[in-house]
Design goal:
2 domains, four-stranded mixed β-sheet, 7 helices
């Protein structure tokens, strides 16, 4: 990554981190504004989703077990046919042992299917109760609460999107710079500062002249000796009137 790209990535990360902080604060306020009924409705909705997922998983497992049981049944039939064709006692004993093992496995699968069917029936009963409670809670939630829940969900979606973008931006930094950035953010809240007029704009300390000269060359980053933030030089944007004044001052100085 080029030096300019590093700076742009760090600037982007600073903006994203700032937005994440704002979103967290807003989410806390909005969540606090949701009353007990709304919180109960959200919890019941999550619980019903989990029960539905659990039932679907158990149904899938039950289907697999039934499939295994059918295969075992087919193997039992084959072993019976084999037993009818044996020619000596040794073969008969071997086939008989095979049959007993297959029947044992089939009984185990049948027992597991029955047990699972009981669990599924119990879970469906729980789901029916939860859905009734969830629908009653949803009916009790007023327009204000519904708007608050919608806003929280939108904020949470934005929070997850920005967190993803932050992770993507971080992955573009080198390992050392990335670790340093994360460490400074945890300590300071912000990890990057521009340097202007010989000072760190975050903590306003005067920087060593040699350090500032190096930063002005915009070839490498440095760290503030006071707040330890990552420093880069940001050229001042001069407006047209200011630029004219600067030129006039320079011309007057040359004439004198």
């Amino acid at each position: 990554m080029s030096f300019e790209s590093q700076i742009e990535t760090l600037k982007s990360l600073t903006l994203l981190d700032g937005r994440i902080v704002d979103l967290k604060a807003t989410l806390e306020v909005e969540r606090a504004g949701i009353d007990e009924k709304s919180q109960r409705h959200a919890a019941l909705a999550i619980r019903s989703d989990k029960l539905e997922a659990k039932i679907a998983e158990m149904e899938s497992t039950k289907g697999d077990l039934i499939g295994e049981q059918r295969q075992l049944g087919a193997q039992v039939e084959k072993s019976r046919e084999k037993l009818a064709r044996v020619r000596n006692e040794k073969e008969a004993n071997a086939v008989q042992r095979e049959l007993e093992e297959l029947r044992r496995l089939s009984r185990e699968r049948e027992s597991e299917v029955q047990q699972l069917a009981g669990f599924i029936e119990e879970a469906r009963g729980d789901l029916t109760k939860v859905v009734v409670e969830r629908d009653e809670a949803a009916q009790q939630v007023g327009d204000t609460e519904s708007e608050a829940v919608t806003k929280v969900r939108a904020l949470e979606t934005e929070f997850h999107d920005i967190t993803r973008k932050r992770d993507e931006a971080l992955s573009g930094l080198g390992g050392v710079l990335r670790r340093r950035y994360e460490t400074i953010v945890k300590i300071r809240g912000t990890a990057v500062s521009s340097a202007a007029q010989g000072r760190c704009k975050a903590c306003h300390i005067e920087l060593p002249p040699m350090m500032f000269q190096k930063l002005m060359q915009r070839r490498e980053l440095d760290y503030c000796p006071n707040c330890h933030r990552i420093l880069y030089f940001e050229p001042a944007v001069v407006s047209a009137p200011e630029a004219d004044d600067a030129e006039n001052e320079s011309a007057a100085a040359d004439e004198s």
